[in-house]
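Data deposition worksheet. Section B asks for the primary sequence of the deposited chain exactly as it was used as input, without tags or linkers unless they were present during the calculation. Section C holds the resulting structure in token form. Section D is free text for depositor observations; keep each observation to a single sentence. Incomplete worksheets are returned to the depositor.
Section A, Depositor: J.P.
Section B:
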Amino acid sequence: MKKATLLALLVCGCSTPPPPDKATPTPESQAVVVAPASRQELDGNLRLTGQVKATESGSVILTAPLDGVALRPLVKVGSSVIAEQPLVEMNSVYGLTSLQILERLEKEQDDVVEARGRLSEALTHETEAQTSLGAAQSKVASLRADLRQAEAELQFAKSDVSRKRELVEDGITSRVELEEARTRLSKAEAVAQAATQELSIARGQVPLFQRNISQYRQAVRLAQESVNLSESNYERNRAVLSQAQLVGTDLPADLTALRLGGSKPSGAAEASNFFVRAPISGVVTKLSVTRGQRVQSGAEIGQVQELSQVYVDANAFEADVASLKVGMPLQVTSNGRTYRGRLDYIGRQVDPQTRTIPVRSLIHNPQGGLRPDTFVEVIVDLPGGPGLTVPKSAVLSLGSEQFVLVEGGPGRYERRPVRTGVESGAQVQITKGLKEGEKVVTQGGLLLEAREK
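Section C:
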């Protein structure tokens, strides 16, 4: 019996049980490993995915100041440029001449005056219609009072005729007085009928005046839109004229003043060749014109970006924002290079779709290694402190849900939703869903999940 027992022990390979603090293979499968949730001192960080953005003052769109033709680009995309450096040479000889710009401005100034006149006329009509409506409503109120008075007099006349008839039958009064009462009744009926008709006519005028007011208000609205449009056209072409002067358009002295009347100025020099220059020092990130291309005034022809400082925008989940504060140190990693900075902004509004909040940092980028619209990794350094942790491998994800598999007994596992916090080395903080000492699956969790399905 002792030999059999010894042989069984050798076959089973039994030995002293492992310490409870170490990961322990479950009896069900050697592929599944569990470990207890434990409290540790955390000196962790929060990892986010960020995107590089140019700063407000560090990105400028280049536009054509005049209608014309691009003679030749002087730089290429990626070129470093300094402020005022020529980027594109243009010629506006095929676009608007100075005289044409001035003539258009004169016409549009006339359009502004005419549109304002129409607006003033429409406002006058609306005011008159409002006055007529008020008079009509006052007349209706007065005629109602007259009708009430006429109806009261008619009722009195009817009563008087009835009373006189009874007195005549009793021999108390004469028939002459009865006939006089009947005459007064006929007059009262006529007055009441006339008051009713006059009130009906006055009431019918009120909706007419109301419709007139509605039409005049629409006319006022259209006239105001016309004023806005004509003023916008005028201001736009006045800006074109100013820009033409800035880039070297030769304007004779007698063409520099606008006049609504009088004789037309004679002769004007056409705009000569000019350069579209870099408004700031930086890098040409876009150039959308080619040699000989016709370009309209205001059209985008390129972009210059100054990248010595850039924004890095990221999105943090609601649960993570509580641990973030403005001024926290962070590092941005891109293409093997690390840039250090601080958290400058934490948003206040939650995205209803992703349940995240935007955060932003301003990163020094003297060599231009961080390029706009590229994705980077953002690691925010969080202050240390005690926290409940499990190995990172214990946390599984399904869509936006994070969960762990908690051992409930030999061969029994329970899926438990959890909320994670900071990462510290190979451990991750659990802020909700677990208690200290509960054992979670650290290896083989995916196998168990597949088996349950």
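Section D:
Residues 15 and 290 are 81 Å apart (CA to CA).
Helices lie at 2-12, 98-169, 175-246, 318-321, 445-452.
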